[in-house]
Every structure is written in structure tokens, then in C-alpha cells.
Specification:
alpha+beta, Flavocytochrome B2, Chain A, domain 1, Immunoglobulin-like, Elongation Factor Tu (Ef-tu), domain 3, 7-stranded antiparallel sheet, globular, binds flavin-adenine dinucleotide, binds nicotinamide-adenine-dinucleotide
């Protein structure tokens, strides 16, 4: 992010888009844009960018872009889809830039997302059984999941054969809304999708059963009427496809706000209840996107689910039910999204996306020394990591949280952290304040090389270390640099970023 001039906030942009001003300079006309035409608009004072086949005149948006004008100019006069996806695939540009729409590209500039399989012929019959000759020719597709379905008087069960061991509840995301079933299986950076407009209505609840060893996933729905179904339903656009996760759009479901409790003077714990028709467990280290319509524009921001509290007993792995998502969110007095969030009433609904992020639990599973460097709400991804490391990482010797805040009042879950440190001798917490009062006897300052060399140390020579870092971007960037200078390798450091 770069500092924006006064009067150039997101809210100011929304106001401008609603002012009726002609932002494209085309007086409301839409045009077909050729590549040559697009290329001509490559200057700050005349800048067009193509995203997913649509061309926007982003000239008026320049001063409002949180990433700065130079970032936007990288795509000037070209197809910026890849660049956009790398930086913020989740930003709802269609809504934010709708008044800047110039038109469509006359020749589609981007290749369709790479699909390994669409099995399009099969879409027509939808009973999941491959014709014999197709099955013989399927060797190249052997690793791609397939599905089948069956029914009893009252149930419909969709069986997905992932052909992969180690399936678990976090890798299955199922939603059933208004007769539309969407079942996604995450397999590394790809996902397999069953997406069907069901033949008949079903009841609200969805059950997911996983046979981990054989990689079989069953999604069971309850029929509303006990009649015999002739088919599962009509395939939807992405039905039976196996694609890179990043080539799929974000899917949202509406969740109910069931409680909102104070954590500190400006931070609250929001508890959202997933619909009964959703199966979703957000993996540790991953975030979700919340979507709200603010002043008529869809705005999306990422948040990292935490636990309702820090468990203190790690004898048994904790089984947190998947029906609720807890988010610890700092409400900024001038924050566009968090102000709107804070105004939600208990019982209101908000859209929550599928999880995203690149942390893999294998990174921590065999670690001996784990260091968590958190600043402010950068504490949020550390919550589940703390729990997981203490409960399930048998190799763990030391776990240290170094928690940077401005003042004592800003420290999130301070009592719980101190209690945990007393209870579990593997865990230690160090608070560092950048704006302490005179009474503060603890560590002061910001992240620095000397502070890191004092606190981040291997418990024995060659011990397996993981250092996770999360906070404001400059904090994370400086931290990573100091750690690299101190000799920690890239594999030993995980930085949480957007
Ligand atoms: P904004 O309107 O963005 O403003 C926030 C503050 O910054 C305000 O004080 C504003 O005046 C100032 N500001 C904004 N833009 C600029 C600018 N360009 N120049 C100068 N000042 C500016 N937050 C949490 O609380 N909990 C989480 O669990 C969490 N998880 C996250 C996970 C990820 C992967 C990422 C990337 C961020 C996460 N965040 C989290 C931050 C969150 O996404 C929002 O950025 C945050 O809630 C602020 O949103 P806002 O719209 O209310 O504030
Ligand atoms: P804050 O402003 O209260 O600052 C907390 C501490 O961060 C400060 O005490 C200081 O030690 C450090 N810090 C702040 N600015 C710094 C700078 N420029 N250089 C070095 N150190 C600095 O923090 P906050 O308002 O709670 O913000 C938390 C940040 O963490 C947000 O930017 C949020 O987007 C980010 N976050 C990211 C993720 C993620 O990427 N996965 C998750 C959660 C939060």
C-alpha cells in the first residue's frame, strides 16, 4: 500500500462512481476494443486495462488505487488479468470499476483457464458412470477424481473417488443452496468440482463422510419428498472439472452473525454460523474473504479465522466443530469495511468465501522450534498454529510467540497467553510495545535485528525451525529480511501476506 492523498479513500471513489460523472469519456457508450486500440491507452492520463476480456478506463481511478499509480501502470494498455490475479484476485473489480467499463475486447485476449479434464460428453448423462470405451482410454485421467451417485427412499449420496490417500474434512467444501449442489475437493493447488442443479428439492442439511485411507468422499443429502430420482440433475458450468484452484472464482455463502464480543478496546471476536447446508473447515494458516455491499458497491476483505479461545489442555487433539467461524477483527475508526462490520446486528447475514492462502500444515508438522512473530491483528493466523503445534506436533520442543503491539491495551488475549505460558513449559510469550507508557517494564521498540537475534534461537544446533511472521506489510518485510540476514533459510520462514 502507498499513502493516498486526502480525499482519495475507497469511500471517496465510491462517491465519485455514484456522482453520475462520465468516467470513461464515452458518454455511456460501450465499444468493442481491439488489441491495437487497447495498446494506445497506455499513459497515466489515458490508461485502459483489460481484465478477463473486459476493458476499463482506469485513468480516473489512478489516485485512488491503494497499491499506487505505478502498480496500475504496469498493466497500462495491456491485458492485466495475470498481474491482477497475482496481486488481488479477490478484489471485486467488476463492482468497483463498473463505471469505468469501456467494453469488451473484440478478440478474447486470455486463453480459457486451463482445465485438465472437463469430460464434457459425460455432462450430458450425469449418472457418473463412464461408458466402457471411455474408461479404457482414461489412463491419462487416472489421477483425476470421478464421481457416482446413488439413492435410497430418503437419501441421495454423491460419492467422489479422489484416488488420493489422506483425504480429510478440510479438503472437502460442500454447499447446497436452492437445489444447487456444489462439492469441491481440494487436491494440492488443484480442485475437483461437482456442481449440479439437482433434479428435486432436498432438505437443508448436508452430511460429509470421508474414508481417508481410500480417498472416498460421500456427500449425503436428504430428499424433501421420498420419490425416486431419475437423474441427479443438470450439470452446471464447472461440473466435473479438475482445475487449478486459482482458476476458480471465489464461492461465497451467507453466514449468520451469532455473537460479537469485545477482545480489546478496538478489537472484537465475531462468531459466524455457517448454514446447515454447508460443510467448510478453514485450515490453519488460511484466510477467508468477507463480502459486504457498502454504498451500493461490493467490497471484499480477507480475515483469518481463529478459535473461540486458546485451549489450555493439549493432551487430546482438539476437535473444533466446523459449524462456526470465529474472526478476531480490529475496528478502525476510519475503516470502510470494519465500520460496516461493526454495524452488523446479531442475526444479520454476511457472505463468507472459501478459504485461501498458501500455508501448509506439513511446514510445522516436524518442527522442533517454532517462532511466531505477530504484530497487531497479525496474531490471528498464529492462534490455530499455537493450538496445532502444542496439541499435535510431537517433535515440538519450544514454541515462542513474540507479539508486537503499540500499547498494553492493544495486546490481544494477553491473559490467555500468559496462562498458557504458565501451564505449558514448551510455550513462551514475549510482548514488545512500540508506544508503551512509563510503567511498562517489558520489551520496547519495533522489530529489529538485535531483538530477533535475542529471541529467535535454535534450542539445539541443527534443530528443525519454523518461523512464522504476520502483521503490517513493512513489519513482515523487515522481519523476513532480518531473519534472512541472521542466516535462516527461506524454507524456515513463512510470511503471511495477502
Ligand atoms: P481501511 O479502510 O482499509 O483502513 C484501515 C486503516 O488504514 C484506516 O485507519 C485508514 O485510514 C488507513 N488507510 C487505509 N488505506 C490507506 C492508505 N492507502 N494510506 C494510508 N492509510 C490508509 N484484520 C483483522 O482485523 N483480523 C484478521 O483476521 C485479518 N486477517 C487478514 C488476513 C489477510 C490475508 C490480510 C491481507 C489482511 C487481514 N486483515 C485482518 C486486515 C483486513 O483485511 C483489513 O485490511 C482491515 O480490516 C481494514 O479494513 P477496513 O476497510 O476497515 O480499513
Ligand atoms: P498496529 O498498527 O496496531 O501495529 C502493531 C505493531 O506492528 C506495532 O506496535 C509495531 O511493532 C508494528 N508495526 C506497525 N507498523 C510498522 C512499520 N511500519 N514497520 C515496522 N513495524 C511496524 O497493527 P494493526 O492495526 O493491528 O495491523 C495489523 C496488520 O496485520 C494489518 O495491516 C493487517 O492487514 C495485517 N494482517 C495480515 C494478515 C495476513 O496477511 N495473513 C492477517 C492478519 C492481519
Amino acid at each position: 500500500q502507498v499513502p493516498l492523498k486526502p480525499g482519495r479513500s475507497l469511500m471517496d471513489w465510491i462517491r465519485l462512481t455514484k456522482s453520475g460523472k462520465d468516467l470513461t469519456g464515452l458518454k455511456g457508450r460501450l465499444m468493442e476494443v481491439t488489441e491495437d486500440e487497447l495498446a494506445k491507452h497506455n499513459k497515466k492520463e489515458d490508461c485502459w486495462i483489460c481484465i478477463r476480456g473486459f476493458v476499463y478506463n482506469v485513468t480516473p481511478y489512478m489516485e485512488y488505487h491503494p497499491g499506487g499509480e505505478d502498480e496500475l501502470m504496469k498493466a497500462a494498455g495491456t491485458d492485466g488479468t495475470d498481474l491482477f490475479d497475482q496481486v488481488h484476485r479477490w478484489v471485486n473489480y467488476e463492482s468497483m470499476l463498473k463505471e469505468c467499463l469501456v467494453g469488451r475486447m473484440s478478440v478474447k485476449p486470455v486463453a480459457a483457464p486451463k482445465e485438465i479434464s472437463t469430460l464434457s460428453e459425460e455432462k450430458k448423462q450425469l449418472n457418473g458412470m463412464l461408458p466402457e470405451k471411455k474408461a479404457q482410454a482414461a489412463s491419462a485421467k487416472d489421477l483425476i477424481p470421478s464421481y457416482d451417485w446413488f439413492q435410497t427412499d430418503s437419501l441421495i449420496t454423491i460419492v467422489i473417488y479422489t484416488k488420493q490417500k489422506g483425504m480429510n474434512a478440510e479438503l472437502v467444501i460442500a454447499d447446497c443452496q436452492d437445489k444447487r449442489l456444489r462439492g469441491e475437493i481440494i487436491m494440492d493447488d488443484h480442485s475437483y468440482l461437482v456442481e449440479v442443479d439437482l433434479d428435486h428439492p432436498v432438505q437443508e442439511d448436508v452430511a460429509v463422510n470421508i474414508a481417508e485411507k481410500v480417498g472416498k468422499v460421500e456427500i449425503t443429502l436428504k430428499k424433501k419428498d421420498n420419490i425416486h430420482w431419475k437423474m441427479l440433475g443438470q450439470p452446471l458450468e464447472s461440473h466435473n472439472t479438475f482445475k487449478k484452484c486459482t482458476d476458480r472464482g471465489l464461492f461465497y455463502r451467507k453466514c449468520k452473525l451469532v455473537s460479537k464480543t469485545e477482545v480489546t478496546h478496538d478489537t472484537k471476536l465475531f462468531c459466524l454460523m455457517l448454514p446447515k447446508s454447508t460443510h467448510l473447515h478453514v485450515p490453519k494458516g488460511r484466510h477467508v474473504y468477507l463480502k459486504q455491499i457498502i454504498a451500493g458497491t461490493e467490497i471484499v476483505k480477507p480475515y483469518t479465522p481463529v478459535l473461540p479461545f486458546l485451549p489450555l489442555n493439549f493432551k487430546e487433539p482438539s476437535h473444533h466443530e466446523g459449524a462456526r467461524i470465529y474472526l478476531m477483527i480490529k475496528i478502525y475508526s476510519c475503516g470502510l469495511f470494519t465500520q460496516a462490520l461493526d454495524h452488523l446486528q446479531i442475526g444479520d447475514y454476511i457472505s463468507v468465501s472459501n478459504p485461501e492462502g498458501n500455508f501448509k500444515k506439513t511446514q510445522i508438522q516436524t518442527s522442533e522450534d517454532v517462532f511466531l512473530l505477530a504484530a497487531g491483528t497479525g496474531f490471528t493466523p498464529m492462534v490455530k498454529l499455537l493450538d496445532f503445534a502444542l496439541a499435535e506436533v510431537s517433535s515440538l520442543r519450544t514454541l515462542k510467540l513474540i507479539f508486537f503491539n503499540k500499547t498494553e491495551d492493544d495486546i490481544l488475549w494477553r491473559n490467555q497467553l500468559e496462562e498458557l505460558a504458565l501451564k505449558d513449559e514448551r510455550f513462551e510469550v514475549q510482548f514488545v510495545l512500540s508506544q508503551p507508557t512509563k510503567n511498562w517494564l517489558g520489551k520496547q521498540g519495533k522489530i529489529s535485528s538485535s531483538l530477533l537475534s535475542e529471541f529467535v534461537k535454535r534450542s539445539k544446533k541443527d534443530s528443525k525451525v519454523l518461523i512464522c511472521i504476520c502483521g503490517p506489510t513493512p513489519f513482515t518485510e523487515q522481519g523476513v529480511q532480518y531473519l534472512r540476514d541472521l542466516g535462516y533459510s527461506q524454507e524456515e520462514i513463512h510470511a503471511f501476506t495477502a
